Amino acid sequence: MDRTANTSVIIWLMGVALMVFVMITIGGITRLTDSGLSMVEWRPLIGTLPPLTDAEWMRVFALYQQSPEYQKINAGMDLSAFKWIFFWEYLHRLFGRLIGLAFILPLLWFAFRRQIPHGFGRRFLILLILGGTQGAIGWWMVKSGLVDDPYVSAYRLATHLGIALTILAVLIWTIADLKHGRAILPRGHVAGVIGVLAITIIAGAFVAGMNAGLIYNEYPFMGGQLVPIEYGYYGVSDPFENPASAQFHHRWIAVLAVLGVLSLWFRARKAHLSGVNLGLSGGVMMLAIFGQFVLGVMTLLYQVPVSLGTLHQAGAAFLLICVIWVSHGLMRLK
Questions:
Q1: What is the pTM of this model?
Q2: Which of 58, 89, 169, 178 has its CA 20 to 30 A from that of 13?
Q3: How far does CA 114 lie from the centroid of its chain?
Q4: What's the pLDDT tens digit per position in 323-334?
Q5: Cα 178 to the chain's mean position, in Å?
Q6: pLDDT single digits (tens) 180-221
């Protein structure tokens, strides 16, 4: 494959990665505005257009009025307010379809032109499967809130976010492979840092799923002590079903993530790779981790306003990009 073709593939994947990043941000807004249960229909192949007539708006509003969320939480909501929450969930689903098209159509074109880089076909297939699975998991998540207890399952929310971030990480690693040459998969210290960061983000998803950011709006203490009094009430399932414990874990695993990223930065400073400026990417990574930590504390202290909550979720995705990029550079040293 010539360099021009390879560059075209890199640009395509960068565009898809940017769209996935935006999608994760939109997903955060959808959750923070309590918009995720506004569309009670699952129409993956149709329904691309929003309601365009008053009659269609009344139809979808009537469907929502039959949902447990409307009856138990939003009873009395008018059509104007419904349109606002519908917009975010509609945008979230529409953008997911657009990402699918942005990935599949160029992939078919590159395959037709025989411009798929050698050895990358399997990885593109994995991305395709992950993307399709993500759409189904999104509806599986929404369905968990269309029941008597109108709240999305924290387990399913964490799964949905986890797969989105996995897709983003695979895209970034693939871009780095194509741009700088293949690296071995993360292991040892590098894999450990990525793992701690992933656990921190997933712990944050459980905080979001249980609205745990609305309690103990202080830092570093929780009710005047480091460990909340409710800690351990639910036994084995406590980290996943106890809001106080979920917030406690997210707080302190985040500290481990900061230390882990700091250790990665020290390694990056010592690395000397021709054509790779790990000093610059490492510096951006450090700005990202400290910015994310401060954002997390501010989001908690101000009781999760939409603006800060959205920035915190976007910050997690951006930090992951930085860590994956630096990790790729370090693994090329092996």
A1: 0.94
A2: 89
A3: 32
A4: 999 999 999 865
A5: 24
A6: 889 888 999 999 999 999 999 999 999 999 999 999 999 999
Helix (H, G, I), strand (E, B) or coil at 276: strand
Helices 79-112 and 3-32, interaxial angle, to 10°?
A: 160
Spatial distance between the Cα atoms of 161 and 138, rounded to a whole number of angstroms: 9
Residue 267 CA: distances (Å) to CA of 64, 94, 253 = 53, 41, 21
How many residues in the chain?
Answer: 334
* Cα gap 228→57, rounded to integer Å: 46
Q: What are the phi and psi torsion angles at 303 (to 5°)?
A: 60, 45
**CA torsion, points 164, 170, 174, 175, in degrees to nearest 10?**
40
Kindly give, in sequence order, each residue whose CB lies less than 8 Å from that of residue 334, ignoring residues fewer than 6 positions away.
183, 184
Give dist(CA 4, CA 320) in Å, integer. Answer: 28
Measured CA to CA, the distance from residue 162 to residue 158 in angstroms comes to 6
41, 89 Cβ separation under 8 angstroms: no
Taking the C-alpha atoms of residue 111 and residue 230, their distance in angstroms, rounded to an integer, is: 56
| Cα 116 from Cα 172, distance rounded (Å) | 17
